[in-house]
Design a protein that fits this description.
about 180 residues; mainly alpha; two-stranded antiparallel sheet; 5 helices; 2 strands; about 5% strand
Length: about 180
């Protein structure tokens, strides 16, 4: 279980890195007239993602969840793929990527990278990771709870993002 704890802590470190990038990108967006939408749901999103990491560790350690190699390694591959997709989104959006919904007026929609195939690829990465990370070490309760709560939150988030984009560019469908 030590290696799983190290994995979860590495994901937590990666999330902190994302926040550093997001802060830099927030400054960039606001300096160009960007406006933020969805401030109300942001704290819930932060709490849910923090709870995911804590739940992974708590359930694994307290409930003594076993590592099932045939399933755990598969889920670890999903986690790695989700990380790859997330960073592909970050790279594709460049300074527009953020953990908040901030839209800069007069910028064309990004239609390259993973946005060629998926409307909200970053959220697909979040959903995949949120399901797979707990399941790497059998934390199925955390996986189910996160997935259900994330589905509700993503419904709110996607509607918020789509409205924000449409308010700046009427034909906008994605960042």
């Amino acid at each position: 279980m030590i290696w799983y704890t190290a994995l979860v802590l590495a994901v937590a470190g990666e999330r902190l890195g994302e926040l550093v990038v997001a802060l830099r990108n927030t400054r960039w967006s606001l300096a160009r007239g960007g406006t933020e939408a969805g401030r109300g749901h942001y704290p819930a999103m932060v709490a849910l993602h923090t709870a995911l990491l804590a739940g992974c560790l708590a359930e694994t350690w307290l409930a003594g969840r076993p590592f099932l190699p045939w399933f755990g390694w598969t889920m670890l591959a999903v986690v790695a793929a989700a990380q790859g997709l997330r960073w592909w989104c970050i790279r594709t959006l460049g300074p527009r990527w953020n953990t908040r919904v901030i839209v800069v007026p007069d910028l064309p929609l990004v239609t390259g990278g993973p946005y060629r195939w998926l409307r909200h690829p970053n959220y697909a990465a979040v959903a995949a990771e949120g399901l797979a990370l707990p399941l790497v070490h059998g934390a199925w309760v955390t996986a189910v709870l996160f997935t259900a709560l994330n589905a509700v939150l993503m419904g709110v988030r996607v509607r918020c993002e789509d409205r924000a984009l449409a308010s700046v560019r009427p034909s906008a469908a994605r960042p």
